[in-house]
Amino acid sequence: MTAALRFDPIRLPEKCEQLRKEVRAFLAEEIAAGTFDPHKPNREDTDAPEFSRRVGAKGWLGMTWPKKYGGQERSFLERYVVTEEMRVANAPTRRFFVADRQSGPVLLKYAPEHIKMDILPRICRGEICFAIGMSEPNSGSDLFAAKTRATRTDGGYLINGTKIWTSSAHIADYMIAIFRTSPPTKENRRHGLTQFLVKMKQPGIKVNPIGQITGQYEFNEVVFTDFFVPEDHVLGEVDGAWKQATSELAYERSGPERFLETYYVLTELVRAVGPNPDTRSAEGIGRLVAQLHTMRRMSVSVAGMLQAGKEPVVEASIVKDIGTVWEQQLPHRVRDLAAFVEETATNRETLERQLDFAIKTAPKLTIQGGTTEVLRGIIARGLGLR
Amino acid sequence: MVVETAEKIFADLADPQTINNDKKDSWQAPLWLALSEAGLPLSWVPDDLGGSGASLADGFALLNAAGRFAVAVPLAETMLAGWLLAQAKIASPEGEMTVLPASPKDRLTMDADGALSGRCRGVPFAKAAKHFAVLAHGKDGVSIALVDASKGRIESGLNVGYDHSDTVTFDKVQPITIKPAPKRFDQTTLMLVGGVARSLQIAGALEAMLDISVRYSNERVAFEKKISKFQAVQHNLARLAGESAAALAAATSAADAIANAKSFDDEVYLEAASAKIRCAEAAEKGGGIAHQVHGAIGFTNEHILHRYSLRALAWRDDFGSESHWAVELGKLVAKRGADELWPLVASR
């Protein structure tokens, strides 16, 4: 077989189920205390710093990291359970989600020891928020076209240029960004970019919010003008960011957040049709549940491979491709089925409000964090076509 | 071991190209003989009932391999028949078997003196079978029976993949043996296990379709380059890989769930029904892409693609179509209620 894709049936171990109970109990308390409303999906509006600290206090941030940096040395499968329960509950995770999923692991791998000791424990305590500085006005999917310059100066670098579509930059304490330290070479157009840790909320950085079609202001333009970054904030190899970017993608691309973004409309549809659905509703719900179940099995399988120390880049890309296309279509399929829901359904207004938001959210799902086209290119490469 | 043995036999005696070139079906007898000598058709029958006593997991893996070769002898059917008979501690005879009913819509009845009546449509390989393993409803519950195939009236037919899919009618047929089914074993149990068997075969066929489509795209030249270099073709193949992966994940997960099930609870039902639904969807979408990549050559009877693509489509219909299972799964989800959906999905 040219394409030996593997999705072994991984089951979550017993200790995960105990953890799941704890997470559900914690979230139920938070909901009861009014921290957030699980029926209100636009949680991106909610910045919940206190909630973030309480999640940290539970030991659920940086859970897989070494204890000396504040982590718990628990498994990826345990982290998986925490992530999916938070997502399904519509918990306000934006303050810690990027740091926990992505930025922390990058620092673990590439930051000098004193920076790890300084920052990682604060992530684990839920105190700090991270943003990712990748896209630029003329560099989106084509990451290696980035132009924002990092110029050598005494003791570090001066940054000039603009990052864009940067989620949470307006509340972030740090950003992990790629800047151009050298021009690309003829042999390798990916050469010349370096990954940096950037401390936000300082002179020389201007964050301009950008309105989204959902009505939210969740992403930003970030302008750097002679902004100084000290030498020890370089992450990894100078000019060699391209070597570092790809292996992390498996973590970023295969999690439950890649198919659960609009899940709430399915729950609400089931509530609206009641215990005795007509054939059309039953058939529609059955298909959606079968598709959801299948994606979750694929996603858990990838988590199991990560736990086993593998780098399932192609499998992870498949999960994100199928998962994001599904969560993008979900509100429209639910809308189809909701057309025949009884006028008397008690949650009719909730469902309509949720659909309104989910339909507006849907277009971004196949763009953020690697477009469908980029993912299919990666899969094609894995199949030996490129 | 079971899978390795089977794969060797398939590679030697079930090569799709050789079979496709053989207009007289002379490949069938040697293949069946080799499979029988290796004890594979009775994999799921314990030693003391005449079988080779392989695990459910090994048997499912064997069916996945059979799908990768588009195997067109009643291997899955005989395995299921042997497994069904073993549920009632009925020994399996030698030779080809199939199971009745093969659709959740059909129902066979047993009268007071143990005679069986009713009609079953779409029974795979009924015409080739020497015996039937039968599930029938009597007034005291469900029974399992071994029936001499010559006792049924068979109207022969072909499914969309050109394999036998026949209508079998019983009119007060006396079985060779009949015994009560175990507690909580019913027609739904049989349909779920049959459906998972078909899901694994579909997943195997999709793996093979991905493989031959990738290979073909790396050979075929158009507009002065290999078609694999066109982004449109690459993205189609990436989608085929996704469908193949989804089918494999759903089918192997369901097989694992059944192999380790203590009872057929809602979680196992979710696994098995989802596998059939998702694999059937993948058969349509994935098979469609495989044909698109191949162009006209894949539409010819001399090319092997149709051995996979049409069989995968045909297997959708056996033991309940995806529409059937979607309705049933949807009803189950609705009955449990909205707030019990996520706990069901996240149960393992």
How many angstroms separate the termini of chain A?
Answer: 17 Å
Q: Radius of gyration of chain B from the CA trace?
A: 20 Å
Strand/helix succession of chain B: HHHHHEEEEEEEEHEEHHHHH
Strand content of chain B: 5-15%
Helix- and strand-based class of chain A? Answer: alpha+beta
Q: What's the count of strands of chain A?
A: 8
DSSP, total strands of chain B: 10
Description of the structure:
Chain A is an alpha+beta fold. Chain A has helices at 14-32, 49-57, 76-88, 94-110, 113-124, 241-245, 249-253, 264-273, 279-307, 313-338, 348-361, 372-382; strands spanning 130-133, 149-153, 156-167, 174-180, 193-199, 205-210, 219-230, 234-235. Chain A has three domains: 14-128, Butyryl-Coa Dehydrogenase, subunit A, domain 1 (Orthogonal Bundle); 132-241, Butyryl-CoA Dehydrogenase, subunit A, domain 2 (Beta Barrel), CATH 2.40.110; 249-382, Butyryl-CoA Dehydrogenase, subunit A, domain 3, CATH 1.20.140.10. In chain A, the strands form two sheets. Chain A has a four-stranded mixed β-sheet with strand order 1-4-5-8, with helices on one face. The mean pLDDT of chain A is 94. With 348 residues, chain B is α+β, with helices and mostly antiparallel strands. Chain B folds into two domains: 2-180, Butyryl-CoA Dehydrogenase, subunit A, domain 2 (Beta Barrel), CATH 2.40.110; 187-345, Butyryl-CoA Dehydrogenase, subunit A, domain 3 (Up-down Bundle). In chain B, 50% of the residues lie in helices and 15% in strands. A four-stranded mixed β-sheet of chain B has the order 1-4-5-8, with helices on one face. Chain B has a four-stranded antiparallel β-sheet with strand order 2-3-7-6, with no helix packed on it. In chain B, β9 and β10 (225-226) form a beta hairpin. The radius of gyration of chain B is 20 Å and the shape is globular. At the A-B interface, α3, α8, α9, α10 and α12 of A face α6, α7, α8, α10 and α11 of B. Chain A: Residues 131-226 form the Acyl-CoA oxidase/dehydrogenase middle domain. Chain A: Keywords: FAD, Flavoprotein, Oxidoreductase. Chain A: Pfam families: Acyl-CoA_dh_M, Acyl-CoA_dh_N. Chain A: GO terms for molecular function: acyl-CoA dehydrogenase activity; flavin adenine dinucleotide binding.
